[in-house]
UniProtKB/TrEMBL annotation:
Annotated Mg(2+) binding sites: 234, 236, 448
The protein's name: Glutathione synthetase
Keywords: ATP-binding, Glutathione biosynthesis, Ligase, Magnesium, Metal-binding, Nucleotide-binding
Family the UniProt entry places it in: Belongs to the eukaryotic GSH synthase family.
Sites where the protein binds substrate: 218, 238-241, 306-308, 312, 351-354, 531, 542-543
Top-level taxon: Eukaryota
Ligase listed as a keyword: yes
Pathway the protein contributes to: Sulfur metabolism; glutathione biosynthesis; glutathione from L-cysteine and L-glutamate: step 2/2
Region described as Disordered: spans on this chain: 39-85
Cofactor remark: Binds 1 Mg(2+) ion per subunit.
């Protein structure tokens, strides 16, 4: 029988699951529970918030909502009977994943109420129309109950990298030859990347330049437990998600630590301020301002169905259109102005358009092409989008390539330090190594949105299959060194149910870049997002159901 995990549901009866994976927690990355640390100054999120009504707080926080409080059982079946669970009350003093068992229901209740009152919500997939109509069928976003501890020095390192990556993206985006050549072999076997490159090539033919360039990026990192080094997983240049909700999770955790910090031995000031939403909104507003047409709008390009709409609404509530709607309603004036619904679009902010699924017909491709030709500021432009492909990440990691784009040697050194091993599959030596020890690698196609990477034994099988098919298909992938972060026991809350499990975390640092010709108007680190997933899961997507939103506690 494996280790016992407490699952506490907001329904009256708690559930106990047996989880063999929840074993190791000694790590660099540990849940903040029980960690005492030096304090430092942090800034509050700038958004205005309503204070939570005291009466509601005490009612929701009362353990009366659960006649059977959570408890740790020594050994139990998967869903032990109610009597059996309640019989374990005698161990109420036990520590549950560093949270005293008696405190868990109260913290959970507080967190769930706080989420509902403060907009930490997503559309509930079980409710029809929740992906289309705001205010219908909301459920709290999945979150970790307490922040995860993170070394201050590595946090600083990750923050420092943001403006350097911003600049790198901008420089690389201007080198069309580099982009086209690096992705040349990929396009032969990957139609989606091929279509993006076609748009890019057409812009070159039209001599189209982007004088005002806006990037809203998120660079993702994992801490490797063996080397204790921070490695970049990837850089997202399109549709970087959760600037709205990630910021709220930091606030949730600070709020919980303000209330329960004494009992937990934690201080809310350990959670750094998270400015993601206000800084991204600022970047969009500055770009709009630079366009210099007071009647113009910011257009958010969305999917036909979007359960993560509230994350987007935190940034902009103005005009939202799908690619298909842009195709049918948008027009391009002879002078390059992009208009939709009779209004001029200053900024196009893409929260769709990064995956082949976003282009089910030619209509969506026409819309993308139309917007790209226009004088609207695209976030991202087709060039910025291509810079964020995994193939370009791998090309940039080759010796002497960063030097083509950046002058500052210190900056180059800082970037290189966070690059994991990255290889093209044209390299036969590395191909052999991957076949021998597939568990040390991740095989990645040119895709975004999670769920596409290949891990473990599947790496060997996929490579063997691609080789048998003649090897052409190998160009669709890159190979990456697999990073193994340390795991920590975590309380993961999804659908009102709290489950304790062994989990690993991935830190995303947001960065915004705005340039108008030679003037850099903004180049900043803009807050962060921690995502935490059970150790047994390879992929990390929150929306895809693999991970929960989290924040950090600096140590
Ligand atoms: N080298 C690696 N080592 C360990 N895990 C990895 C590695 N690369 C990716 N992963 C895991 O797979 C997830 C998805 O990988 P990646 O970010 O490269 O793909 P994506 O489809 O672009 O995802 P996203 O939707 O986050 O942009 C990551 O969040 C991480 O959990
Ligand atoms: Mg990505």
């Amino acid at each position: 029988m494996g280790r016992v995990v407490v699952v506490w549901s907001f329904s009256p009866s708690p559930t106990v699951l047996s989880d063999p994976a929840a074993a190791s927690s000694s790590s660099l990355l540990r849940r903040a529970g029980g960690v005492k640390t030096a304090h430092f100054h942090s800034q509050p999120c700038r958004r205005e918030r309503r204070a939570r009504p005291v009466a509601m707080s005490s009612a929701a926080g009362s353990s009366s909502s659960s006649p059977c409080p959570p408890a740790v059982l020594a050994e139990a079946g998967e869903t032990g009977g109610r009597e059996e669970r309640c019989a374990s009350r005698s161990v109420s003093d036990a520590i549950v994943g560093d949270i005293p068992a008696g405190l868990l229901p109260e913290i959970l209740s507080e967190a769930l109420v706080w989420s509902a009152l403060h907009g930490l919500v997503v559309g509930d997939r079980n409710v029809p129309r929740s992906g289309n109509i705001p205010g219908v069928g909301m459920v709290h976003a999945p979150f970790a109950l307490l922040p995860v501890s993170f070394p201050k020095s590595l946090w600083r390192q990750a923050c420092e990298l943001a403006p350097i990556f911003n600049e790198l993206v901008d420089r690389v985006s201007l080198d069309s030859k580099f982009l086209q050549e690096s992705l040349f072999r990929t396009r032969e076997v990957d139609t989606f990347t091929g279509r993006l490159l076609d748009i890019h090539a057409k812009m070159l033919e039209l001599n189209k330049t982007e004088d005002i360039r806006l990037g809203l990026h998120r660079s993702d990192y994992m801490l490797d437990s063996a080397t204790k080094r921070l490695y970049q997983i990837e850089l997202n240049t399109i549709s970087a998600s959760f600037p709205g909700l990630g910021c709220l999770v930091s606030e949730l955790h600070r709020n919980l630590l303000n209330q329960f910090g004494k009992q937990l031995g934690l201080d809310s000031r350990g959670v750094p301020g998270n400015t993601s939403v206000s800084r991204f909104a600022e970047a969009l507003a500055k770009a709009w301002n630079e366009y210099n047409d007071s009647s113009s709008i910011v257009l958010v390009v969305i999917k036909p169905e979007e359960h993560n709409m509230y994350d987007q609404y935190w940034l902009s509530t103005i005009i939202r259109k799908t690619l298909a709607e842009v195709d049918s309603e948008g027009e391009l004036l002879p002078d390059g102005t992009f208009r939709i619904g009779g209004r001029t679009v200053a900024v196009v902010y893409f929260r769709s358009g990064y995956s082949p699924n976003d282009y089910p017909s030619e209509s969506e491709w026409r819309a993308r092409f139309l917007m790209e030709q226009s004088s609207a500021i695209k976030c991202p432009s087709i060039s910025y989008h291509l810079v964020g492909t995994k193939k370009i990440q791998q090309e940039l990691a080759k010796p002497n390539v960063l030097e083509r784009f950046l002058d500052n040697k210190d900056d180059i050194e800082k970037l290189r330090k966070c690059f994991a091993g990255l290889w093209s599959l044209e390299d036969s030596e590395i191909l052999e190594k991957a076949m021998e020890s597939p568990e040390s690698f991740v095989l990645k196609p040119q895709r975004e949105g999670g769920g596409n990477n290949v891990y473990g034994e599947d790496v060997r099988e996929t490579l063997a299959k691609l080789q048998q098919e003649g090897g052409r298909g190998l160009a669709a992938y890159i190979l990456m060194q697999r990073i193994f972060p340390a795991s920590a026991l975590t309380h993961l809350v999804r659908d009102g149910t709290c489950r304790r499990d062994s989990a690993i975390s991935e830190l995303g640092i947001y960065g915004a870049y705005l340039r108008s010709k030679d003037k850099v108007l903004m180049n900043d680190q803009c807050g962060y997002l921690m995502r935490t997933k059970v150790s047994s899961s390879n992929e990390g997507g929150v929306a895809a159901g693999f991970a929960v939103l989290d924040s950090i506690y600096l140590t």
